[in-house]
Amino acid sequence: MSEQAVRRRTRGGGGAARRAERSAVSFETARFIERNIPNLEMLNEEALEIIETNAETILQEIGVNFVNNPGALALWREAGADVDGERVRIPRGLARELCKTAPSSFTQHARNPERTVAIGGRNLVLAPVYGPPFVHDAKGGRRYATMEDFRNFVKLGYMSKWLHHSGGTVCEPTDIPVNKRHLDMLYAHMTLSDKPFMGSVTEPSRAQDSVDMCEILFGKEFVQQNTVMTSLININSPLTFDDVMMGSLEVYARNNQASIISPFIVGGAMAPVSVAGTLTQVMAEVLAGIAYSQLVRKGAPVIMGAFVTSIDMNSGAPTFGTPEAAQITYGVGQLARRMGLPYRSSGGFTGSKLPDAQAGYESANSLNMGLMSGVNFMLHACGWLEGGLVSSYEKFVMDADQLGTLHKMAAGIPVDENAQAMDAIREVGPGGHYLGCAHTQENFKTAFWRTGVLDYKPYEAWAEDGARDTMALASVKVEKMLADYVQPAIDPATAEALAAYVAQKKASMPDAFS
Amino acid sequence: MSEQAVRRRTRGGGGAARRAERSAVSFETARFIERNIPNLEMLNEEALEIIETNAETILQEIGVNFVNNPGALALWREAGADVDGERVRIPRGLARELCKTAPSSFTQHARNPERTVAIGGRNLVLAPVYGPPFVHDAKGGRRYATMEDFRNFVKLGYMSKWLHHSGGTVCEPTDIPVNKRHLDMLYAHMTLSDKPFMGSVTEPSRAQDSVDMCEILFGKEFVQQNTVMTSLININSPLTFDDVMMGSLEVYARNNQASIISPFIVGGAMAPVSVAGTLTQVMAEVLAGIAYSQLVRKGAPVIMGAFVTSIDMNSGAPTFGTPEAAQITYGVGQLARRMGLPYRSSGGFTGSKLPDAQAGYESANSLNMGLMSGVNFMLHACGWLEGGLVSSYEKFVMDADQLGTLHKMAAGIPVDENAQAMDAIREVGPGGHYLGCAHTQENFKTAFWRTGVLDYKPYEAWAEDGARDTMALASVKVEKMLADYVQPAIDPATAEALAAYVAQKKASMPDAFS
């Protein structure tokens, strides 16, 4: 069945889109974070200079490979690089010079202007988990992800107050052919949510489909003049830029759409086993990648990224929420700020198989470091489980709840007269209590961050309620959210045009499952 | 009883203690943390000055109460304060001036010199949970704590590599009379561990017993010249210093032993509902408390403390690991550094009833803020559950494992030639991998922090092993540790003298259970 057929069949009865518009309820979303607190500067000037100098040495002496990409090689040759086969050696300073045309911040528009985000500067935009082929929930356990799961995660993201972005591949809809699923995924982001989203990068043609669908959603002219997608371009570390990812980057850059240019590194495997060595390689890779984006189109918006985990040298398993990953995240943040570029990293990381204590520790470690390291775009901020193999329903709402703490921390500490509370201290005096005083009455509603998931009940009340752990509490919340979901309003003609595009594209090619 | 008499009596016997000495196995303990990374300075100069000025205003205009303590009032009057009944109003600047004789750092000796800690400066000493009347483990659930539990937690603390301190009331041994349990607790710390520990504060006479027992353990002269206990003196916020706590403080100060002078604050109840207001009150309280310690004995070692939680304004329940508590922790750290005093806060905080995801998030939030806020002495670093009502066996080893990440983070990022890894990057080149390269072989053993609890297995192996969550994995670890425990060597005569002191003291008074 195609999406178009469904639309046609329902049009007579009033139409789902129109019904959605009539009953539209807008769920509250917090504005993206503007930090009012300092970043933690982990490396000193000398260390940063060593890393930057070594990165340039890598580019000049070792170089990077642009695989299967004669166009890229030609651009590099023209720019003054030394091209030898697929190896591109970039003279010291050239890549950095080319990066200068990349904007230090940019706006990614959402179809609902209230959800539009500014990426860069002191801002932090939070986006959900990306990429898992499996899902997990308390009732159904671990299983392959389907399109229904995908739509559910988009709905949860839309309803999550502290999540600014709908993300991209919130899970892999494995029941849809590989060459068609990007169409359904984009359609879901565009119609089930009104937050900004990411485009497809699994083939340059799918990146083009993403641009085409955005032109339907936003209008052709608007897309050419504004950024409406921020997509994830992974570098094949070490030092390799493959044609699929670069092909997608080229589509996005030519269309003025943003790319996150992000090495994908398991430390000790795709980069040296040391933090400084990894930082050096990351720096070389993003310098080359961002420079290339600017060769494709000067001024194309980019984000300097890093996806870095450690490795458990016993088992070879990747590890998450570790101190070394945090050190690298802090370091790349400093390097990005020195480049004057927006910075992407990851939060909500864990290697755990369940949303248990391990998941809590590792995710909180990642979320805290993301805030303190000056990240501008945090991918995987909620829902990530089992090293990225699993999108967890419960962990999605647990993490999304914790994202509220980042907002509060980032706001800093007010010291105005009301915050100083000297009248309250005078009123209460030694030995009194503040519960009933005027200052408390006036301020208590907004004074403290409040969880929507965690349990603060007294033991007896908690035990009577079933002695539920966090996963069980989150499971209830997931069910309630999905039951309460209401689709955001969308112009029926636009929705129909998008559905038609998807149907036509799907009809134009045979199914592929790998 | 004197040290000498005890020695003489025990010299003849063979005894368990000598057997323990013969079979002694020493478990590895990491040296206390010396930070090689910056602190996060959350407040700017202007905000800090407002808080400091307001704190002095509180002391001058509102004052503090020293309850049931004519001696303290006399000392304050003599020092130039305005004493009116139990109210002590301290002229602007006086408390701060008095605080100047407190040392900026001090050494707390352990009976094993390798475990001696330096408290202050850029150091961080980690100590376990303090105070819970209940314990919890996976098999036995939640129950009143007993002396056996207490001994078990001392054993676990002794065996925990990343824990520097044996702590104090690791749980309340509720099966021992209230007026005698401090003796058994101290005996356990002194004989089952060789790490530094805390003294009793529940009655001045019990503080004196603590000093007496230390004189047996360390020698009378040594105790008078060195600090061998760091004990927890809570201020009865707001602005009240009760006679029990102050009586204990007086005993410790006179004997050159360290006190943590720490307001106990549930924000919105014992302090204003705002962060800046709470910081102001904390500052006033510790200024008064530390000044008083210096009136008792100039140069007495102290730690500026803060125990701060928020409150859930719906239920009135205290909350842990929240952003407001973190903001206060960062702020007090800055105030302490400006005073030139060691700083105590708390890690491992959670309101959860189980060592589940909530416990993980909240504890990791607390541990991270403790490191980044410049804490010198972190109490409750492991084992805390249910808002401090419960010492959790599993959470003890889970948290203690996470403390390893603080060590690694604090070490900073080396950028020496080996860390730069340029040879490795040259050797591997674009498209290669680092698993087998020389640099990885030479460095992998120490490159990454390694957990002793968390699970990194592939899903299938984990499922085959019973699909255990973190609590279940930790439970196995607890059992193994307690089974593997070996008592550290102790001079049999000393152990016997301590036992004799405890027996004699217990025999000298009737049991009291409240």
From TrEMBL, chains A, B:
Residues 1-20 are annotated as: Disordered. GO terms for molecular function: methyltransferase activity. The keyword Signal does not apply. It is an enzyme of class 2 (transferase). The keyword Transport does not apply. Its EC number is 2.1.1.-. Keywords: Methyltransferase, Transferase. InterPro entries: MttB-like_sf (IPR038601), MTTB_MeTrfase (IPR010426). One of its GO terms (biological process) is methylation. Belongs to the trimethylamine methyltransferase family. This is Methyltransferase. It comes from Thalassovita litoralis. The lineage of its organism: Bacteria, Pseudomonadati, Pseudomonadota, Alphaproteobacteria, Rhodobacterales.
